[in-house]
Design brief:
The chain has about 325 residues and is α+β, with helices and mostly antiparallel strands. The chain has helices at about 1-40, 45-65, 315-320, and strands spanning about 80-85, 90-95, 105-110, 120-125, 140, 145-155, 160-170, 175-185, 190-195, 205-210, 220-235, 245-265, 275-290, 290-295, 300. It has two domains: about 1-75; about 80-320, no CATH class.
């Protein structure tokens, strides 16, 4: 009887503590929400970026709170929040558009340190200063900024690997999508962006795809079909019922992969001018094996429907105040 009563009291105390923690975080969210409305809805640069600075300060205070990692901030519009399945880190990213159509990316990471707590790192977008973005190893203070919409976690021989898929509005001429490996210092939790995890591509630290604002570029992680080398026979009896003849049909398999459009200039004479780049119609797939992301040699045959990830545009771009783009 006493044990049952003790467990009942303990459960009540746990509920009270959890509610108190949520109430504290909800207080932060109530202060953050109107700032997001101003960040993404105000008509001038001064108003938007001033609200953004206040939002950054308030969000940093919220993330420093001990129990903030488990809170989802459900009402924060246009703030993309991703949490790794192993609870190692949580990343917040968003973008503000200037009146000239240039995008600036902002973000925070909460990552676990050796003591089991979470450290907070603000991300500073230095993409304009990175001369060779696909080979540069970066960190929180020199970040190739993007708004991340997917997080891929894989494992090999006890090592966990993380990839982020992101979108960068860039400017009025081009958009960018990014495959960004991220790793963490085991002691401090400090993030490093860029990692040599691409098979037979030793200098590559990330993929950066830059293309015309008029193009729709696909970059996704999911199960997709691809054509294998072998062929299977399919009988056709349309013309001769007694002696059916056989025609070759491609054999397909499916697996979990990152797949993306291959880019090419709309006109061959525009080679190197990324504002003229668009999908060629060919698809490349990457699959994870033995700690590396390898290219599929077979043709990828996408069968899944397009999603919002293929045509990501912040809602303020859709309003007509800013140039739309993908």
């Amino acid at each position: 009887m006493r044990k049952t009563f003790f467990l009942f009291i303990l459960s009540i105390l746990i509920i009270v503590v959890l509610n108190a923690q949520n109430y504290h975080m909800q207080g932060f969210e109530l202060r953050l929400k109107p700032l997001t409305e101003e960040m993404f809805g105000a008509k001038t640069d001064n108003e938007r970026f001033a609200a953004n600075e206040r939002f950054i300060s308030e969000l940093e205070d919220a993330l420093e709170y001990e129990k903030s990692f488990s809170y989802d901030f459900p009402t924060l519009r246009n703030i993309n929040i991703l949490t790794s399945p192993d609870k190692q880190f949580k990343i917040f990213t968003w973008a503000i558009i200037s009146e000239t159509g240039d995008f600036e990316n902002f973000g925070f990471i909460q990552s676990k340190d050796k003591n089991g707590g979470y450290k907070v790192y603000r991300l500073f977008d230095k993409s304009d200063d990175v001369l060779q973005p696909e080979t540069a190893k970066l960190n929180d203070s020199s970040w190739f900024g993007a708004v991340y919409y997917d997080l891929v976690m894989t494992k090999n021989e006890g090592i966990t690997y993380y990839l982020l898929l992101g979108w960068d509005g860039n400017n009025i001429y081009t958009r960018r999508k990014i495959i960004e490996p991220v790793s963490f210092n085991k002691s401090t939790g400090r993030p490093t962006f860029g990692q040599n995890v691409f098979y037979k591509d030793k200098d590559r630290k990330r993929f950066v795809f830059e293309y015309s604002t008029d193009a729709v570029f696909t970059l996704r992680y999911e199960t997709q079909h691809y054509q294998v080398a072998g062929q299977k026979k399919a009988k056709n009896t349309l013309f001769h019922k007694a002696k059916p003849f056989e025609v070759e049909a491609p054999e397909t398999e499916k697996r979990q992969m990152i797949f993306f459009d291959e880019l090419e200039p709309i006109n061959a004479s525009m080679q190197g001018f990324t504002q003229q780049y668009a999908p060629s119609g060919n698809i490349t797939g990457l699959y994870f094996e033995n700690g590396k992301w390898k290219r599929l040699k077979q043709n990828v045959l996408p069968r899944n429907k397009k999603t919002k990830k293929d045509d990501y545009v912040p809602s303020e771009s859709r309003s007509g105040l800013f140039p739309a783009g993908r």
